Amino acid sequence: MTSAAKTAPESNVGSHDAAPSAANDPGVDPRLLEVLVCPVSRSALVYDREANELISRAAGLAFPIRNGVPIMLRDEARDLGAK
């Protein structure tokens, strides 16, 4: 009976964890934001959760995040443009 009690919570935890990760973006680890800088301006980046991008205000660029991995290439960045 003890092994059945241990098995049930473990299976529930696995299925519970899988659903939210599929529904939510993985976001960016705050520790990663502390060390990442814009490859163009060498300035700090700001995480935009809605757009899932890292913003460099100094360079006017937005770097995409794909599958939880920041793509820090100038050619992949979106130009924020001067408005």
Indicate the topology.
Layout: H1 2-23, H2 30-35, E1 46-48, E2 53-56, E3 61-66, E4 69-70, E5 78-79
Antiparallel strand pairs: 1-2, 2-3, 3-4, 3-5
Determine the CATH topology.
Answer: N-terminal domain of TfIIb
Fraction of residues in β-strands = 15-25%
Largest sheet: 5 strands, antiparallel
Please identify the top-level CATH class.
Mainly Beta
Helix fraction by DSSP (H/I, runs of at least 4) = 25-40%
Tell me the structural class. Answer: alpha+beta
Shape: globular
Number of discrete domains: 1
Helix-strand topology string: HHEEEEE
What is the overall number of helices? 2
What is the distance, rounded to the nearest whole angstrom, between the alpha carbons of the first and last residues?
A: 67 Å
- The CATH architecture assignment turns out to be Single Sheet
Structural account:
- The protein has one domain: Single Sheet (N-terminal domain of TfIIb), CATH 2.20.25.
- Strands 1, 2, 3, 4 and 5 form a five-stranded antiparallel β-sheet that branches.
- It is built from two helices and five strands.
- A hairpin with a 2-residue loop joins strand 3 and strand 4.
- Helices cover 34% and strands 20% of the residues.
Please describe the structure with a list of short key phrases separated by commas or semicolons.
83 residues, alpha+beta, N-terminal domain of TfIIb
